[in-house]
Amino acid sequence: MTSVTEPKKIILVKPAHVYYTHADLESAHAFLLDFGFAEEKRVGSKIYYRGYGPDPFVYCASQGDKTEFGGVAFVVESEDDLKLASQTIPGASEIYTLEDAPGGGKCVTFKDPVDGFPFHLVWGQKERAGKREVDEKDELPNGNPLHLTFNFPEDKQRPAGKFQRFKKAPAPVYKLGHVGVCVTDFPKTFEFYTSRFNFYPSDLLHKPDSKEYFNTFCRLDRGSELVDHHCFFFFEGPKYHVHHSSFETHDFDTQVLGHDWLRHKGYENCWGVGRHIMGSQIFDYWFDPSKFILEHYVDGDLLDNTYPTQKKAASHDGIHDLTFQQDSWTERNFGLEVNIVDVIGNFRLKIINQKKKTIFRNSVN
What we know:
Blueprint: E1 12-22, H1 25-35, E2 38-43, E3 46-50, E4 59-63, E5 68-76, H2 79-88, E6 96-97, E7 106-111, E8 118-123, H3 131-139, E9 151-152, E10 155-156, E11 175-183, H4 186-196, E12 199-206, E13 213-220, E14 227-228, E15 232-236, E16 241-248, H5 252-264, E17 268-276, E18 282-287, E19 293-298, E20 302-303, E21 310-313, H6 316-319, E22 320-321, H7 329-333, H8 340-345, H9 347-351
Parallel strand pairs: 1-4, 5-8, 11-15, 12-21, 16-19
Antiparallel strand pairs: 1-5, 2-3, 3-4, 6-7, 7-8, 9-10, 11-16, 12-13, 13-15, 14-20, 17-18, 17-22, 18-19
């Protein structure tokens, strides 16, 4: 899955933001606020949203005739990386200025060579000033959770008379953590992204009955720097589609409060709350009104370049560790007889047509 002569790699730093087009922008906007985004700027038919982290924006929603995923943007290490992308990736745009976007900066856009979805590279964005000193206390509805203390059986950290009290509110988004897509040719997609960029597979999954790889969870190779277990994943299926975009929130209390907020607002839960195996994140997936899937996550793994690729067969146990739901996502939507490859490959294609019944054991009343 690697080329004989690999080009010089374009060095990525982190995920930056995603673009979505909605036929009903008003409904999408209401959901995004309830999900925990903060509106940052409106330009024509576009709304830019940020989290409470340093990124100038993490989600851009546009009004359009049909719903559509407009791609993910990654920050590159230098302007030279932008130039390299523009000059060497087939069909890549010239470097252009993000004139209307919060934070400004420069960008190169190209189309994925296999399935044609947009992919953006940005550099020079200005981070939000005073993000912690000025904004955090006001934006986090339960005060400053960075200073929460916990009492464990043999390690009581919270002083006498200090209580844990929370109020109902959305789970505020901190940053864009990862994006996943279903692709139609896994080997070609894998070769392109791992040879052109510093994507490195944390996990490679093959089909249970063969050694044919069809799914990967990629992190960024930043040397000894600690990075998230994955920031980009893709798997092979019959038709290209975006799988989901995932956003980090602060901690489990915040996440469950956000889950309860969305539930009481009448939105459709997709899967969660539970804990993954690969990456270890506590996850909570929701459908927006356009039937795109967004995830809140907390407590993900960190890796550096000393951790080798884990190669394994796909299995139900390898996807998640069931925690708070009465039955598993796969059982609830497809039945036990469904092959795991079909489950992964048809997540969004099938689940939107399923009638789901979920029992929440972690509701905040």
